[in-house]
Amino acid sequence: IVRAQQLDAPPSMLCVLDAGDDGRVGGTRASAERWSRTVGVPRVVDLRALREASSAGPPGRASPAGAASDGPDAPPLAQIPVESRPARTLKTMLFADFAGYSRLHDAYAPLFQHRFLEIGAALIATAVAKPLEAKTWGDAVYAVFDAPRDAAEFALRFLRQMETIDWTAAGLAASSHVRVSLHTGPVFRTRDPIMQRDSHFGSSVTRAARIEPVTPPGMVYASEAFAASLAAMGAHDYSLEYVGNLPLAKHYGESRIYRVERR
User: Fold this and answer.
1) At 222, which helix (H) or strand (E)?
2) I want to staple 94 with a disulfide (CB 3.0 to 4.6 A). Which of 38, 52, 143, 244 is the partner?
């Protein structure tokens, strides 16, 4: 969907679907149903219809349904070792900081800190969908959301509120602005014994943090995974402008980056 927007072309889905099978989370049926709700009718290759047509063919012809069956030497599924680890779930991570904060004089630090945290707390209090986790340290904000749409809404509202403040009164340059990064990916969730609350962690959290330093002040940058997840959910209130394949902070490789704006 995102790529079609870049090319100014209509997107279409071609899916191979077994109409006789039960739907699973993340499976082809779920994708086709989501596409039907947000885009239109997909083009479907029905495996059940192909099997029925094949079973009515010449005698002795092998059925596609039997091609994938286990041979006599295949071990039972229960005997195949599976790595034991906590389950991961798909979440959206937000990182934000204030460009120019490191040059802030101590005389202005309490004023900045009060206003900065006040804005963040007010947005969380009024948010329809609260973050699952939210932390601050210095000028940085870290939050985890259940859905990309909720994170996009919070990011743009946070950016707008921060731009209404005259930060020059706090000793900052007029060009100082907040910058926000977003990334959607699988993360672990477990109890933090020090903080005494649930915490999210994993490589997806790190990737979200590495996007934020390369984000220009006053903008919201997002990974392609976030952009795709937002588009797949039919979030038409937001525009996704492709920025390019950018090198991330701390030599974390490159990533296809999109700018998130309100449509």
Assistant:
1) strand 220-223
2) 143
In angstroms, the Cα distances linking 259 to 180, 219, 238, 244 are 10, 7, 10, 10
Residues whose CB is less than 8 angstroms from the CB of residue 208 and which lie 6 or more positions away in sequence, other chains included:
93, 94, 95, 181, 182, 183, 185, 223
CA-CA-CA-CA torsion for 206, 212, 214, 215, nearest 10 degrees? 150
Instruction: Tell me how many degrees the CA angle 18-19-21 measures, rounded to the nearest 5.
Output: 70
Mean pLDDT of the chain: 86
Amino acid at 157: R
**DSSP H or E stretch at residue 21:** none
List the single range of 60-64, 66-70, 157-161, 164-168 with lowest mean pLDDT.
66-70
* Overall residue count recorded for the chain in this entry: 263
Q: 178, 172, 32: which is closest to 104 by C-alpha?
A: 172
Q: Are 161 and 123 in contact (CB under 8 A)?
A: yes
Number of Cβ within 10 Å of residue 134's Cβ equals 17
Residue pLDDT, tens place only, 94-139: 999 988 787 788 888 888 888 888 899 999 999 989 999 999 887 8
User: Is 30 in a helix, a strand, or coil?
Assistant: helix
- Quote the Cα angle for 228-233-236, to 5°: 90
pTM: 0.78
Assess contact for 165 and 113: CB atoms under 8 A. no
What's the whole-number mean pLDDT along residues 41-57? 87
Q: Which two tokens stand for residue 40?
A: 């239109």
